[in-house]
């Protein structure tokens, strides 16, 4: 069995806390305890709580994108738009706290539209989340 890198185990623990108890439960100490490391060790992988929450949100966006990729969008524009909305609604209902973090909470260091979405430009994520991204 392959052991996951520490950064992935940290993010998974943060996600589990988020899913069960909400964003306020995601603290560096609680995440570290869940992984079995010291709170300071978390900072070797993430610059801070904001970086960790952004990494969790980024994985949520990747998860949603995978679900959208799997969906078959056939039919007229209205039918295809309804399917996109159905996928998003299902994601929101299945992972409400992650959805809230992704779309409804202001996150320090998160990419913002339109500033960070100018054609071809990508925000510098390493400055926010350290080596864990």
In short:
By secondary structure, this protein is mostly helical. The chain has helices at 6-21, 28-35, 39-42, 49-70, 77-94, 96-104, 126-129. 61% of the residues lie in helices and 0% in strands.
Describe what you observe in this structure.
The protein has 133 residues and is mainly alpha-helical. Helix content is 61%, strand content 0%. Helix 5 crosses helix 6. The C terminus is likely disordered.
Low-confidence stretches: 123-133
Number of helices: 7
Extended strand count: 0
The share of residues in helices is: 55-70%
Radius of gyration: 16 Å
Summed over residues and divided by their number, the pLDDT gives a mean of: 87
Work out the strand percent.
under 5%
Write the layout of secondary structure elements.
Blueprint: H1 6-21, H2 28-35, H3 39-42, H4 49-70, H5 77-94, H6 96-104, H7 126-129
Helix pairs in contact: 1-2, 1-4, 4-6, 5-6
């Amino acid at each position: 069995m392959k052991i996951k890198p520490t950064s992935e185990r940290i993010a998974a623990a943060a996600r589990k806390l988020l899913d069960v108890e909400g964003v306020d439960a995601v603290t560096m100490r609680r995440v570290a305890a869940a992984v079995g490391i010291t709170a300071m060790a978390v900072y070797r992988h993430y610059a801070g709580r904001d970086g960790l929450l952004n990494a969790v949100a980024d994985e949520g966006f990747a998860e949603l994108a995978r679900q959208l990729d799997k969906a078959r969008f056939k039919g007229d524009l209205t039918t295809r738009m309804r399917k996109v909305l159905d996928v998003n609604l299902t994601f929101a209902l299945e992972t409400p706290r992650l959805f809230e973090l992704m779309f409804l909470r202001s996150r320090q260091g998160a990419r913002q539209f339109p500033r960070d979405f100018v054609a071809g430009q990508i925000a510098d994520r390493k400055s926010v989340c350290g080596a864990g991204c």
